[in-house]
Automatic annotation (TrEMBL):
Keyword terms of this UniProt record: Oxidoreductase
CDD domains: SDR_c
Protein name (Swiss-Prot/TrEMBL): SDR family oxidoreductase
Keyword Ribosomal protein: no
PROSITE patterns reported in the protein's UniProt record: ADH_SHORT
Phylogenetic classification of the source organism: Bacteria, Bacillati, Actinomycetota, Actinomycetes, Kitasatosporales
Source domain of life: Bacteria
Family (UniProt): Belongs to the short-chain dehydrogenases/reductases (SDR) family.
UniProt keyword Secreted, yes or no: no
Length: 244
């Protein structure tokens, strides 16, 4: 299939996990794709790679401008770069709060601000933000992370309202627990990683973790003309976790 033939896409955090699977899927479906990442050294052709730190506005503007020049325009922005945090409100200090909000929320604001002038030139403009079920699920030990993703959900709805008349759609995906290098790092830090993984899988209604490719599929749908009248929505990709 070639749902993305002729479209140009940019994926932040595209060197690993969900972002990487998304960049590869969009490219396989015909898009020209650029990746913005802190460490894009592992990104291979046909993906274009640009180094950027989403907490640094100048870095984002420079990388986005270079990527748009390489691509020859921009139709799709995937705001995916993000970091995790564990604990209750007593466990994270102000510095940790500002750091996670800076990456997970302001990072999306910076890339979107830099991308909007280019997206306005597109006939198929779409933004997809990687949110999380943490935005609405009330997960224990995730106060800071959940607050950051709650902000991403609200930001998605507000951006959808602000830009719908310009022909720019804005949606988000809410993944559950996804088998990415991030989750592997958390499991590896446990005393018995194999037992921890088995316990995590057992807690999933579907009995397994979500794959990065499955989240990429949902992002690709929301980014493609197939969802041309869908804006301001959150699509859960959580193996049945939502509401449980
Ligand atoms: P990952 O750690 O595998 O990949 C994240 C990528 O983002 C990395 O390549 C990293 O270099 C990049 N990145 C981090 N900080 C950056 C910065 N300041 N500037 C530029 N790039 C930066 O993680 P993942 O599991 O693929 O997560 C991707 C997104 O999915 C995140 O927004 C995360 O919150 C969200 N998410 C993940 C899960 C999960 O279970 N893995 C669940 C729900 C939501």
């Amino acid at each position: 299939m070639s749902d993305f033939e002729g479209l140009k896409a940019l994926v932040t955090g595209g060197a690993s996990g969900i972002g990487r699977a998304t960049a590869e899927l969009l490219a396989a479906r015909g898009a020209e794709v650029a990746v913005l990442d802190l460490d894009p050294s592992s990104v291979d052709k046909p993906l274009l790679a640009h180094r950027a730190d989403v907490t640094d506005d100048a870095s984002v503007r420079a990388a986005l401008s270079a990527a748009v020049t390489d691509l020859g325009g921009l139709d799709v922005l995937i705001n995916n770069a993000g970091i995790g945090a564990q604990g209750t409100v007593e466990d994270n200090d102000d510095e940790q709060w500002w750091r996670v909000l800076d990456v997970n929320v302001l990072g999306m604001v910076r890339t979107t601000r830099a991308a909007l002038p280019h997206l306005r030139e597109s006939a198929h403009a779409a933004i997809v933000n990687t949110c999380s079920i943490a935005a609405t699920a009330g997960l224990p030990q995730r106060a800071l992370y959940s607050a950051s993703k709650g902000a991403v959900l609200s930001l998605t709805l507000a951006m959808a309202a602000d830009h719908v008349r310009e022909g720019i759609r804005v949606n988000c995906v809410n993944p559950g627990t996804v088998d990415t290098p991030w989750v592997a790092r958390l499991l590896d830090a446990a005393p018995d990683p194999a037992a921890e993984r088995a316990a995590l899988q057992a807690r999933q209604p579907a009995g397994r973790l979500v794959t990065a490719a499955e989240v990429a599929g949902a992002i690709a749908y929301l980014a493609s003309p197939l969802s041309g009248s869908t804006t301001g929505t959150a699509l859960a990709v959580d193996g049945g976790m939502q509401g449980l």
